[in-house]
Write a structure and sequence with these properties.
Layout (H helix, E strand, L loop, with lengths): L1 H13 L15 E2 L4 E5 L21 E6 L1 H9 L8 E7 L9 E8 L4 E14 L2 E12 L5 E8 L2 E13 L2 E8 L9 E7 L4 E6 L3 E8 L2 E5 L9 E3 L3 E9 L5 E6 L6
Antiparallel strand pairs: 1-2, 2-3, 3-4, 4-5, 5-16, 6-7, 6-13, 6-14, 7-8, 8-9, 9-10, 10-11, 11-12, 12-13, 15-16, 16-17
Length: about 260
């Protein structure tokens, strides 16, 4: 199953095919105007050599592959990816000379994986050989924009209170800490950036201080945008398999994904 889907990944996502918009199918099985492939999997890589990207295992299997206009526009015509982008693979190896496997995949675009930070963090400011340990509490996080806000204080003297605002974009985090008006150092500002994966980075503070920072103890929740459906699994970085079910060559049927909703 994983071997089949990886072959289709190359064919549909990454391979650059020369496309003809003329009506009808080409010799490989593609009809780009109708956005469909029908034929032996041998033709998926556009080389009729009894192999699929050098492997003969699935070459004789029958494949019906369809993709939406939104998928086609984004994959081949530089349009932005949207929630309307999908592709469908019906793989039939129960044919003469076939692999014996029968699988059905439905795949949609969901965008890149994102990270939400939440909870209470131990935020340490490393400056001039000293570690200044703070508590950072995330009060809100906007999943649409990646923006967050919160508050915190210096652990050794909690009169040093501050507010934090920032943004998480991909694996990058940036934020600004400004000390409260009633803090012993009102208006003191720290501008920081770094990696949300490792939760560390660099910082610049009032007066030109250069420092580094680390954060531990909070939560990082991985999520996708509004295209994501519960019950599927991620693939190829920005896509979700919303249906993955079929039969192995020994006739054992299995489900690996059944998202809700399951249609396009």
């Amino acid at each position: 199953m994983k071997k089949i889907i990886s072959l289709i990944a190359i064919a549909i996502i990454f391979a650059v095919a020369s496309q003809s918009l003329a009506a009808g199918f080409d010799e490989f099985g593609y009809n780009y105007k109708a956005r469909i492939f029908v034929g032996k999997a041998d033709g998926v890589d556009r080389v009729l050599d009894g192999k699929v990207w050098g492997d003969p295992t699935y070459a004789n299997d029958h494949l019906v592959m369809k993709w939406s206009k939104a998928w086609d526009d984004a994959r081949f015509h530089d349009a932005p990816w949207t929630c309307d982008a999908w592709e469908d693979n019906e793989w039939n190896g129960a044919v003469s000379g076939g692999s014996g496997e029968v699988w059905h995949y439905k795949i949609i675009w969901v965008g890149p994986e994102k990270s939400e930070i939440q909870g209470t963090w131990t935020w340490t400011y490393h400056f001039a050989g000293n570690d200044y340990v703070h508590t950072m509490i995330i009060d809100s996080f906007n999943r649409e924009t990646g923006e967050f806000s919160g508050h915190g204080y210096y652990n050794a003297n909690q009169l040093y209170k501050w507010k934090v605002t920032g943004t998480v974009i991909g694996d990058d985090i940036s934020f600004t800490i400004i000390y409260d008006a009633d803090s012993p150092n009102p208006g003191y500002t720290v501008s920081a950036e770094g990696s949300v994966v490792s939760m560390n980075g660099s910082a610049t503070a009032t007066g030109g201080q250069k420092a580094t920072w680390t954060a531990t103890g909070g939560n990082i929740i991985k999520y996708y945008g509004p295209c994501w459906r519960e019950g599927g699994y991620p693939i190829w970085g920005e896509f979700e398999v919303i249906m993955d079910q079929g039969t192995w060559s020994d006739h054992v049927h299995e489900w690996f994904a059944h998202a809700i909703p399951n249609g396009y």
